[in-house]
Amino acid sequence: MSEKNDGANRDATKRSARERLQAERERQKTRDKRRRTLIVAAAVVGVLGLATVVGVIAANAGKGDKSDSAGPVVAPSGATGKDALAIQTGKPEAKSTLTVWEDFRCPACKSFEDNYRDTIHELEAKGLLKVDYHLVTLIDGNMGGSGSLKGANAAACAQDAGKFAEYHDVLFQNQPQEVDDAYGKNAKLLELAGKVEGLDTPEFRKCVEDGTHNSWVGKSHEAFAAGNFRGTPTVLLDGKDIFSEADPLTPQKLKQQVEAAAKGSGGAGAKGAGKEKEAGKDTGKGGAKASPSASRTASTSSKGTANSSVSGTANGSGGRSGGGTASGAVSGTGNGSSGD
Known about the structure:
Helices cover 45% and strands 13% of the residues. By secondary structure, the chain is an alpha+beta fold. Strands 1-3-2-5-6 form a 5-stranded mixed β-sheet. It has a 4-stranded antiparallel β-sheet with strand order 4-9-8-7. Helix 2 (107-125) links the parallel strand 2 (96-102) and strand 3 (129-135). Helix 2 packs parallel to helix 9, helix 4 packs antiparallel against helix 5 (164-173) and helix 4 crosses helix 8.
């Protein structure tokens, strides 16, 4: 009898242990289910929170980062030409007009400025030439960065302050290497403004930092692209590309043509300096051939840049131009079209 009771007690103990184990397993399942629910809920909240943060960051970036060309088009003070996309220097009544499409990051544009700057300023001072500058962002598109855009905006801000010509020259004189997007930093542009007397003002700084004229610069670049120009710099004298022929204008020949146009001779100055007219007729039909040697080469890269070089020497002198005499060298960066 005792053995039966002992067996019954053992069976009861086993059942009790199994029941307790089963109950514990059920409780564990419940805990696991609750934990999974909490984990999933937390993950969902985390994802939604991250999406919210990203959305806020993106929204704030769109509002605060004015490095792109979005926003209203605000032309700089005194902008002229079609859609007010040109900044003009020189006297408006000057008979000859030089139209220049430039990018402040473009090495070829610096080469043009270094060779022609003194001649252009001399002709402007005499009231013989005015220049319409159109600002382009070609290098930003080809190399990445924002220096072309921000440099152009800063130059437009300088125009608001009546200091465009001076600041324009400073930007080209201090141009960084093409691959160095130094002008993409407002601090650098503001530092260079210190080289122009009276430019570094709170108004100028705000204009630069706010990107006030970014959209205007973007519209100027759109006009450049629509014009199907070969590249930067594109330089037109009274609508004619001065580098389009085998015998491009040098600084000296530019001076001769502008002075001749001011005298009503139709831009003669052909056959070299000091040539006489024959029977009242112009000998050169504009900027005719003197004795320069010129070569132009072009190639298109996979990124859409075409590079061209032009060298010219007038009056037989070699080397760089000095005091307006004689040589000009320009290499151009294209906007995706094949070279000449």
